Fold each of these.
Amino acid sequence: MVLKAGVVGLGILGSQYTTFLDEQPETQVVGVADIRSEVAREVGAPVGAESYDDYERMFQEQTLDLAVVATPDPLHRDPVMAAIEAGVPVVIQEKPMATTVEDADAMLEAAEEVGAWIFVNYANRGAALDRATYYVIREGLLGEVVYGEIHLDDNISVPRQLWGDRSEDWAAGSSTAYFLLSHVVDLLHWVMAPSEVTEVYAISQERVLGYTPDLYDAFLTFDNGAKFRVKAEWIKHIDGLVEFALDFSGSEGTLRYIKYPGFGEAEGWRANLSESVTAEALLTHQNALAEQDIDVRAQVQMGKPAAAAVAAAEIGPQVSLEAKALPKDEWRVVRGFVDAVLEDTLTPSSWQGYGPLPTGIDGLRQTQVVSAIVQSAEEDRVITLP
Ligand SMILES: NC(=O)c1ccc[n+]([C@@H]2O[C@H](COP(=O)([O-])OP(=O)(O)OC[C@H]3O[C@@H](n4cnc5c(N)ncnc54)[C@H](O)[C@@H]3O)[C@@H](O)[C@H]2O)c1
């Protein structure tokens, strides 16, 4: 069976979706739509898709099995609603699901009314070491996670130049909360489930860019008492485009994951596990991850020798799982969505062991938490969530 796909919003991400779906034997891109008609023609021609400058017309003329929506952050609602109203049974959306809770609610409600599926592409969930993080936390190998600190920062060139002449408007319609913290909030929602964020306190800074906040820095409290600090900046003068590091403190172990390193850091992942994990169990976990193509090394090591004066604080032995850089698998989640449609299940054969694929329900929660971050910073108060 070949699924007929239409893609709306053909910028950085939409053009990548078009190429990716064209490369999958089970999908065919039959239509592409962008208000910039020359862009629609450029993206559509190489894959033999009809190009449109109006997605409504694409939805009327094409019978689609799935629609992708990759318009700028605040502009997801209208094309998603149009796709659902036109009878498209599956919509894949880029993150963030929405920039208002009202938009997220409306999309989810419309989909539920007609039994359509909304997927939201939280691409981090597909990366090997994000999945290893999920595994280690879910298996309780850190004990109970009680605290974490995550930062995801972009180079200042992102809000200034990433979208060419449109950059200032683009960034003004979004912020580091919607564009970056949506990733972090979903990642925590995924690894901490069924716990949910119930309390948010955040600050922002607005001194440099002028058209969008420079950064958001937030404290999230989960209903099981775990607390996280999550921070995202758009004013970093750094070598690369992105810096992304995640730390988890458990009652019995510690995980450090440097996904996109900054100055003086190297990409890597290490989970120092609970001392209750035996050498035999350690190998079982290494093998379980290897079966998922996640190549981590089991090790037992002594701590660094301490000076004689502090020898009483001898460290180790420490059991751990460690990995250097592994492929980021950026399209694994989208491939999972395609398999979900083909196999008619939210846990298709290519997505086993990592919970259901992210849907509009996860998207709504992500939108609620990110909106609470923005509101908390604006009103300088703690926001509680149901
Ligand atoms: N850029 C990234 O690195 C990145 C990474 C991950 C996710 N995303 C997400 O993907 C989405 C798209 O981001 P992008 O960077 O590709 O943006 P982009 O601006 O490059 O692409 C968006 C496209 O949508 C088009 N568009 C705007 N309004 C439209 C409308 N009403 N009808 C049809 N087309 C319309 C624009 O002309 C543009 O071509 C965003 O939600 C973003 O957060 C972006």
Amino acid sequence: MNIYLDIDGVLIVHGKSVAHAIEFLEEITTKHSCFWLTTHCRGGENRAPEYLLKMFPAETESMLRKILPTDWNALKTDAINFTQDFRWLDDYAMEAEKEILRKNNCFDKYIRVDLKNNPDQLKNLMEVFNG
Ligand SMILES: [Mg+2]
């Protein structure tokens, strides 16, 4: 399935890679089609790998480059392909984005990442995506 990935609050918190981020990306990029859905990849420019490589080890570069860019401006949901199964991982969705998910009967495909309350959430999600 397609997995859409936010970065800040999901892979990076306070300028640091979060727990399990790299294993999580390794797992999902081998098993699923992954797309960036982050302000670091927007309006036709993909700066996500460069941004993450400030915090991730250099050997993660080829894996990061496997994650496909999206092009969106105002709403992240503009980049989601609703004709295919997907999950969208983000620490925050705007009300307008939630409304579009509901209109497409896809609200359950939005996974709110809340590492403050669940620091091992990426590890748990890895099990969900593999199961
Ligand atoms: Mg975020």
